[in-house]
Amino acid sequence: VSxxxxxxxxxxxNVNFGTLNNGVGTPATQNPTxxxxxxxxxxxxxxxxxQNITYPxxxxxxxSANFFTANFAVYIDYNQNGDFTDVGETxxxxxxxxxxxxxxxxxxxxxxxxxVPGHTRLRVVLVEAGGAGGTVAPCGTFAWGETxxxxxxxxxxxxxxxxxxxxxxx
Length: 170
What we know:
Shape: elongated
Structural class: mainly beta
Distance between the termini: 68 Å
Radius of gyration: 19 Å
């Protein structure tokens, strides 16, 4: 379980990871849709991610009133054991700022070769900085923010094929 105790203030506006694009990140403040505590998006169309490939990721924060700095973390259950606490399962984290454009943080995530192929849980947790002392855990409750869960598909990397034997040029 992961969720905020309060439905106001800080929320996840948009998650963009590879071909996954869910939500709207505007307006950053005074956004009437910033009322979530936990959102289950596991029934959305599943997007595929191949081992050893790097994908862009960005998280956008929205607020129901004024802007509050927040910390976030993205987790992928690579070994599909039902938790996000194993080494390497925290795949991206950062802090938003209250300057123009500071509500979106971008980076990249590489799917490791040891990730178990198949449907896998992706969790995004955004915690208002003052609400949790700046820490973001994959489970538990916090004062303000939101957790979103997704299902992604880890695809095994296609093995290399030996180059064909060259023919004769005439």
